[in-house]
Specification:
323 residues, alpha/beta, 2 domains, 13 strands, 26% strand, binds oxa(dethia)-CoA
Amino acid sequence: MIRSVVQGCGAYLPERVVTNADLARKMDTSDEWIQQRTGIRQRHIAADGEFTSHLALKASQRALAHAGLNASDLDLIVLATATPDETFPATATRVQAELGMTRGAAFDVQAVCAGFVYGLSVADSLIKNGLASTALVIGAETFSRILDWDDRGTCVLFGDGAGAVVLRAEEGTGSSADRGVLANALHSDGRQHDILYVDGGPSSTGTTGLLRMEGKEVFKHAVVNMAAVVGEVLAKAGFEAKDLDWLVPHQANKRIIDGTGRKLGLPPERVVVTVDRHANTSAASIPLALDVAVKDGRIKKGDLLLLEGIGGGLAWGASLVRW
Ligand code: UT7
């Protein structure tokens, strides 16, 4: 049985850090409000001329180096983003060109904050079906470009960044027998469009549009759907919450993360939290969090990881991965 085994990961954050205090100097908000409601202390913001593809490229180069592989080894790039460089072509093809990868396929998936789990599931399926053997799965965003900086209810919540993992098809024998992506669960509910969307697009307004969110409503759905989907993906793979080594959740709000951890019965030290430093980076948040916990030595080969996220659509999902 073919498994998609993680070979390495990498991440990149823009240099510019904007703290809550920086925002409070420009708008009617406070460090106290932002930290209490979300756990966010700061976010990274891309420089002028720094695009999603640039962040994605740097994260990808680091992931390839960590995996000990070259771009020529890749035959698939799946890039999860809601903030592509251009309407088309896919930002993934820009990354493909910059990496110097000349074979295989590169495309984007769009599931906003659930994008990384969607991208991982798509890449895993293509690998399992023999359509690819070595894949780069990237989550990369420049949400600062689609924020309404006059709306304090949303603009303080998001940041820019990118993370990536390299997956490789393995036969599922020997030392890697139980490693890899073990199960995925994906869902969406298009009826919830109005609580989180961007009010523009090439076919509707001809503009890029700005992010609109009814935070309280999204919060309610997030708590319920995350609890359900983590149970679903564990059951699919025949595991229980007590078997988990790490929860690596989408980083939107510390209160949602804590709630999911509690429902799983996981102690806080088994939950990877980066929302304080990165804020909500949409599709990039899970691979960014993964990279932090792998590079600081917390996540080790053989650990059982649960990844989960929810965002605009609404779209949500979870993946169970033996690292
Ligand atoms: O990644 C995609 C998924 N997204 C999410 O998971 C987000 C889910 N939602 C949330 O995280 C929370 O709903 C928020 C953090 C967005 C908001 O927290 P909340 O506890 O739901 O606050 P609220 O929106 O109900 O606002 C409460 C008060 C309001 O004032 P009044 O009407 O009570 O006087 C807001 O005007 O806080 C006010 N407020 C602010 N005050 C200071 C809203 N934004 C700010 C701000 N600074 N930045």
